From TrEMBL, chain A:
It comes from Salipiger bermudensis (strain DSM 26914 / JCM 13377 / KCTC 12554 / HTCC2601). InterPro entries: Acylphosphatase-like_dom_sf. This is Acylphosphatase-like domain-containing protein. The lineage of its organism: Bacteria, Pseudomonadati, Pseudomonadota, Alphaproteobacteria, Rhodobacterales.
UniProtKB/TrEMBL annotation, chain B:
Keywords: Oxidoreductase. Transmembrane segments: none annotated. It comes from Salipiger bermudensis (strain DSM 26914 / JCM 13377 / KCTC 12554 / HTCC2601) (Pelagibaca bermudensis). This is Vanillate O-demethylase oxygenase-like C-terminal catalytic domain-containing protein. Pfam families: VanA_C (PF19112). PANTHER family: 3-KETOSTEROID-9-ALPHA-MONOOXYGENASE, OXYGENASE COMPONENT (PTHR21266:SF60), IRON-SULFUR DOMAIN CONTAINING PROTEIN (PTHR21266). The keyword Oxidoreductase applies. It comes from the Bacteria. GO terms for molecular function: oxidoreductase activity. Residues 94-269 form the Vanillate O-demethylase oxygenase-like C-terminal catalytic domain. The keyword Protein transport does not apply.
TrEMBL record, chain C:
Residues 28-132 form the Rieske domain. GO terms for molecular function: 2 iron, 2 sulfur cluster binding; iron ion binding; oxidoreductase activity. Pfam families: Rieske. InterPro entries: ARHD_Rieske_2Fe_2S, Cholesterol_7-desaturase, Rieske_2Fe-2S, Rieske_2Fe-2S_sf. This is Probable oxidoreductase protein. PROSITE patterns: RIESKE, RING_HYDROXYL_ALPHA. Residues 1-26 are annotated as: Disordered. It comes from the Bacteria. Residues 16-26 have a biased composition (Low complexity).
Length: 80, 281, 231
């Protein structure tokens, strides 16, 4: 299991974005904890197998249609 | 706004230049009837009202647009290199979104299962990490450092090799792939996919190749590529939903789908949504 | 032939009422014949609005799943069966017991999480018929002693029209067709169509089955022609 913090930046002002991320994490069986939330920036901690964290990044890069994700920066917190 | 949005102002292939006749051929572009013909020795395209549409004759194909393209059609510099054989493969009609046809072309993970023992084979299924970027200067999606094991990489390949690929999306329904060229190390074979959007769920696919292959018969080269596309068609006509989702909320893209995701992001950014589905379903 | 004994005295009680194919029946619905899904194969099916992938494992276990790979939406009914798994033909994602994803070939090192699974439908086999339901019904699907599954046909006509042509109502009809005492199971399909799953007397000789086939095909033509007239 790996824990990483994702800093997601872009036009995330839609109220749909965070629930979308939560739902996608659940579909992947990835643990999620919200660290910080702003209209243009979201900091989220995810926990799961490395390939699933990659998949989480893939999903979030597209997200719901009314959000635009400009970039996702990943920082490893821990790995076991 | 008329049907097609931003995609209306893009260039699309509508036929092979060498097949043009004075009488012309009726076909469709984004739901509208058009006629492609030879007029005074040059290709001409007219819409359902007889209005002349802009025309470009390039890569052995006729290109047109229902709108007003701001940019020239993309180029493929390799095509002009001496010694390459240019192959118009012909047309393959597929009952799928034109965008899905392009997305499938960008995908390597399906090789062992859809093109079994030709472009891929088990147990060599792993997709190694590769790089994807949107090049702002040319406004194209590029995937580089793509590697995959192929039992028969091309007509000229004997035995299995690890093949290098680069992928390029240069228009909403066009992609060019560069792959290891077995007879000429250091060079790339070029295979392009030009997709004509007939409707949002029906397209004509015009593959085009520029190869260093002196030995193979032209018909063999064409048959090889046609076989590959027929195999792809069985997948493309059975994906749900029919339109390409720009919200992956009902899918599970992984790192192996990175090029697909970059392509969809690029479509989303430009409002290229003809053949796309905006909400997950 | 005397096969309509007490054992199937009330098959209608456990069969759904015909509908337009848009609503999901709550009881068992016949979806295919057991012989039409041999070992290690998959085929498409329907249950109300749902597309199904009906497949049989190497050991003979039958399953009915949503016909859509969670990865990129490819129909799983086009997939391939190895052992006790159904794999998607597109990227080879493999699914086992309960629809659980067990293999993602592009990422062989990954043990897929429990969260990745294909929605599963209830399925049971009785009298050579594969029955499906969204939620497990209270009892097993009906048995029909004395008859065996013979063949399935798709009819471009409403289930009610098909039932009427067979001289009955509902979805389980016992009648005489081509001189044989048969059981006809009617499955509502989308687009105003119906599936007809026919059970013929046990031990029928080939000539009798040929006659039955000819009779049911004629019946299908009549029903479809009548449906076209009214449309």
């Amino acid at each position: 299991m790996t824990r990483e913090e994702f800093t997601i930046e872009g036009a995330l002002g839609t109220p749909l974005f965070l629930p979308w991320v939560e739902r996608h994490a659940a579909r992947l069986g990835v643990g999620m904890r919200l660290r910080d939330s702003a209209p243009e920036r979201l900091a989220v901690e995810f926990e799961g197998a490395p390939a699933l964290l990659d998949a989480m990044e893939m999903g979030c890069l597209l997200g719901p249609i009314d959000a635009w994700v400009e970039s996702i920066v990943r920082k490893r917190i821990s790995a076991t | 706004m008329s049907e097609g949005g931003a995609m209306r102002d893009q260039w699309y292939p509508v036929g092979m230049t060498k097949q043009l006749t004075a009488q012309g051929r009726d076909t469709m572009l984004m739901g509208e009837p058009i006629r492609v013909a030879l007029a005074g020795g040059a290709p001409s395209v007219t819409d359902g009202t007889g209005r002349a549409l802009p025309v470009i004759d390039r890569f052995g194909h006729v290109w047109t647009s229902l709108g007003q393209p701001e940019k020239d059609l993309f180029t493929i510099p390799e095509v002009d290199q001496p010694g390459r054989r240019l192959v118009d493969v012909g047309v393959c009609r597929v009952r799928c979104s034109p965008l899905r046809a392009v997305e499938n072309f960008l995908d390597i993970a399906h090789f062992p299962f859809v093109h079994t023992d030709i472009l891929g084979s088990e147990p060599h299924t792993e997709v190694a990490r590769y790089e994807v970027e949107i090049r702002d200067d040319v406004d194209e999606v590029w995937a580089t450092k793509v590697k995959f094991f192929q039992p028969q990489a091309a007509k000229s390949a004997e035995g299995g090799i690890t093949t290098d690929y680069m992928y390029r999306v240069c228009a909403p329904t066009c992609s060019v792939l560069y792959k290891t060229c077995p007879p000429k190390p250091g060079e790339w074979d070029v295979i392009a996919l030009f997709v004509q959007p007939l409707t949002e769920t029906l397209c004509d696919v015009w593959p085009y190749m520029a190869l260093y292959d002196d030995d193979a018969e032209m018909t063999d080269l064409i048959h090889f590529q046609q076989m590959i596309f027929v195999q792809d068609r069985s997948v493309l006509e059975n994906q749900l939903p029919a339109l390409l989702p720009l919200d992956p909320g009902r899918e599970i893209p992984t790192r192996a789908d990175m090029t697909s995701i970059a392509y969809r992001r690029w479509l989303k950014r430009h409002g290229f949504t003809y053949g796309a589905q905006l909400v997950a379903a | 032939m005397g096969m309509m004994g007490a054992a199937c005295s009330d098959p209608c009680a456990s069969a759904p009422t015909p509908d337009t194919g848009d609503t999901v029946p709550t009881d068992w619905t016949p979806a295919a014949l057991s012989d039409d899904i041999p070992v290690a194969s998959a085929a498409p099916g329907q249950l109300g609005p749902h597309d199904l992938a009906i497949w049989r494992s190497a050991s003979g276990r039958i399953a009915a799943w949503a016909d859509r790979c969670p990865h990129r939406g490819m129909r799983l009914s086009h997939g391939f069966v190895r052992g006790e798994r159904l794999s998607c033909i597109y990227h080879g994602w493999g699914y086992g017991e309960g629809g659980q994803c067990v293999r993602i070939p592009a990422h062989p090192e990954l043990t897929p999480p429990e969260a990745i699974r294909v929605p599963v439908f209830s399925v049971a086999e009785a009298s050579g018929v594969i029955w499906v339901a969204e939620e497990a019904p209270d009892g097993p699907p009906p048995e029909f002693p004395g008859v065996v599954a013979f063949r399935s046909l798709q009819v471009s006509a409403a289930p009610e029209a098909l039932a009427a042509a067979l001289g009955g109502t509902g979805t389980v009809i016992e009648t005489v067709l081509g001189g044989a005492q048969v059981v006809a199971l009617i499955q509502p399909l989308r687009g105003g169509a119906a599936g007809l799953h026919l059970l013929a007397p046990e031990g029928s000789d080939p000539a009798a089955l040929d006659a039955l086939s000819a009779e049911v095909e004629a019946l299908r033509r009549r029903v479809e022609a009548a449906e076209e007239m009214t449309a």
